[in-house]
From TrEMBL:
Main localization of the protein described in the UniProt heading: secreted
Domain spans labelled Peptidase M4 C-terminal: 153-323
Range covered out of full length: 208 to 531 of 531
GO cellular component term of the entry, any: extracellular region
Subcellular location: Secreted
Domain Peptidase M4 intervals: 1-150
Family statement: Belongs to the peptidase M4 family.
Active site: 143, 226 (proton donor)
Protein name: Neutral metalloproteinase
Cofactor: Zn(2+)
Keyword annotations: Hydrolase, Metal-binding, Metalloprotease, Protease, Secreted, Signal, Zinc
GO biological process, one term: proteolysis
C-alpha cells in the first residue's frame, strides 16, 4: 500500500551509491522490468541504486519504481526476522540464504508468488485501479511461507493438504504483521487487507468472502486451496482468540463455532508456535485436516504438556471446526 516510513538495510553499490541488498539477511530486491512471472529467472531484471540511500516517494501508483521496492525489501526483512527471532529459523530453507525479491513483475499482474526453483519472491503492481497490496507485509509473509512449507512438510498443493498449505501461509503471513506491529499496517485477522477495505480473506468467519469454508466437511478438499484453507484459518482464530464477538485493534470479529461450543483462546503467539512445530516436525506432504489435528496436538503436548490449557484449547478449536 506504500504508506508510512520504513527503514531498510542496504549495501554500497559497486559503482557508487547504494543498492537494495540486505547485508544481514542476504536478500536482494530488483526491478523485474515487467517480465512475467513465468519467464523470470533470479538473474533477470535490474538492481536498484540510489546515491542518497533514501528510496521511493510513498505514493500508491508511484512513477518512482523504487517505491514498491523499498516496501518489498523491508517486508522481506520482517519475514526473515519473524522466523529467525520466533523459531530460530535461519531463512526460508534454514540455511541462511536470502531470496531474490522482484517488484514490477508482469503488467497489471494483480498477484504475488514464491518460486522454489528461482528462490525468488515475485510481486506485481496490482490491477492498476485498486490499492496495490502485493508488497504488503501479510502478502509477502504468505508467499515466503510457501517456501518454508516446501522446505518442511511439503504439503501437496491440492485437496486437504493444499488447503493446509494455503492456511499455513495465511497464518504466518498474518503473524509477520503481528510481529512487525507497524502503525500504518495494524495487526489483524484479515488477510491481504489494505489501508481501506476490502480484505481478500478473513480468519474469524472465512465464509464471509463468499467462497471459503468455515467448517470441515467430507467435500472440503474439492474446493480451491485458497478456500479449503478456511477450516485451518478458522481453527487458528478460535484457538487464538476464542469464539464469539470481539473488537481487536479497532476491527470487529465474530467467530461462530460449527458445533455450538464455546472456545477460549490462548493467544496467537502460542498457536503459531504450536503450528510451526506441527508443520516442521509432524506434517507430511499428504497430511489431511484430521492429520493436522493430530500433528498440532502432538506439538502442543511437546511444548506445553498433555494436561495443559494450550493442549485443550487446540483440541477444542479443532472440534469447533468439525475436525475430530
Ligand atoms: N498468490 C497465490 C498464492 O500464493 C499465488 C500462487 O502461487 N498460488 O496462493
Ligand atoms: Zn498462497
Amino acid at each position: 500500500e506504500y504508506t508510512g516510513d520504513v527503514t531498510v538495510d542496504t549495501t554500497p553499490a559497486a559503482g557508487g551509491g547504494y543498492t537494495l541488498k540486505d547485508p544481514v539477511r542476504g536478500h536482494v530486491t530488483k526491478d523485474a522490468d515487467n517480465i512475467s512471472a513465468s519467464s523470470l529467472k533470479a538473474s533477470s531484471g535490474t538492481e536498484f541504486t540510489s546515491s542518497t540511500n533514501v528510496w521511493g516517494d510513498g505514493q500508491k501508483f508511484s512513477a518512482d519504481r523504487s517505491t514498491a521496492a523499498v516496501d518489498a525489501h523491508a517486508n522481506t526483512a520482517w519475514t526473515y526476522d519473524y522466523y529467525k527471532n520466533t523459531f530460530g529459523r535461519n531463512g526460508i530453507k534454514n540455511d541462511g540464504r536470502g531470496a531474490t525479491v522482484f517488484v514490477h513483475v508482469g503488467t497489471n499482474w494483480d498477484n504475488a508468488q514464491w518460486s522454489d526453483s528461482c528462490f525468488c519472491m515475485m510481486t506485481g503492481d496490482g490491477n492498476g485501479t485498486t490499492d496495490p497490496e502485493q508488497v504488503d507485509l501479510d502478502t509477502m509473509g504468505h508467499e515466503m511461507t510457501h517456501g518454508v512449507t516446501s522446505a518442511t512438510a511439503n504439503l501437496r498443493y491440492s485437496g486437504e493438504s493444499g488447503g493446509l498449505n494455503e492456511s499455513t501461509s495465511d497464518i504466518f503471513g498474518t503473524m509477520v504483521e503481528w510481529y512487525a506491529n507497524n502503525t500504518f499496517d495494524t495487526p489483524d485477522y484479515l488477510f491481504s487487507d489494505q489501508s481501506t477495505p476490502p480484505w481478500l480473506r478473513r480468519f474469524d468467519k472465512p465464509s464471509l468472502d463468499g467462497k471459503s469454508a468455515d467448517c470441515w466437511s467430507s467435500t472440503v478438499g474439492k474446493l480451491n486451496v485458497h478456500n479449503s484453507s478456511g477450516v485451518g484459518n478458522h481453527w487458528f482464530y478460535l484457538a487464538s482468540e476464542g469464539s464469539g464477538s470481539k473488537i481487536i485493534n479497532g476491527v470487529t470479529y465474530d467467530s461462530p463455532t460449527c458445533n455450538g461450543s464455546t472456545v477460549t483462546g490462548i493467544g496467537n503467539q502460542k498457536v503459531a508456535k504450536i503450528w510451526y512445530r506441527a508443520l516442521t516436525v509432524y506434517m507430511t506432504s499428504t497430511t489431511t485436516y484430521k492429520g493436522a489435528r493430530t500433528a498440532s496436538l502432538n506439538a502442543a503436548s511437546d511444548l506445553y504438556g498433555l494436561n495443559s490449557a494450550e493442549y485443550k484449547a487446540v483440541a477444542a478449536a479443532w472440534s469447533a471446526v468439525k475436525v475430530n
